[in-house]
Design brief:
By secondary structure, the chain is mainly beta. It contains two helices and 15 strands. The longest helix has 8 residues.
Amino acid sequence: MPESVYTSSKVTSAPKSMSLGARGPVRMPVRMPTLPPARVPLVHRADLLAGLRAVPAPTSTGPRPASFEQLGLDGKVVRLEVLAENLGRVNYGPGIGRHKGLLGPVLVDRRIVQGWDSTPIALQEWSTGELARAVAAGPATTHAGFAVATLHVDTPADTFLALPGSSRGLVWVNGFLLGRYWEIGPQVTLYCPAPLLRVGENIVAVLELERLGAVLELRDRPELGPPEEYVEEFG
């Protein structure tokens, strides 16, 4: 996070009978500079599974699909591929300790599919080269997959990224995994600090899991959702 910068201003002191707290200059935080708002086209480069297949990963074989824990992550013959997304796990109540992933048998016409190859995809460990390999695994023929937007920056500054029209996925800035977005909110923007950007061309890569929008927006302030009232009762 950027360091806070303070400036001083003079205020009129209250009468002695109304004096509250310390006297003297009041320190007010100065807002850090941001890039001007902009809309940048998103170019769809590769489909979801094609991009993920382009990066080698270890595979385990078994009669049933492996859970995330087992993978080490907290007629005619056809190929069936199932992508299971890890959205985290329950950390309270009776759900603590339960496995996550594709846990039960997979049925096709009421018959159990056997002989699964399970491959963990550690997106958070991808190098810049591996991300580029996934993006280049085109052409794109569906509504999901990998897309890129190119930003031209004169002077790096903070910005807030939004993906209107897109559903949910992940964002990289110059190879750095910035975070996850989801249209259900409440958070709409992702904070991109100035040190992640460089003078000249910057590449924002997007992995969209459902429906890719047409643009990437740069905003000058965050949108974290509507304010909510917090009420705590003590018995």
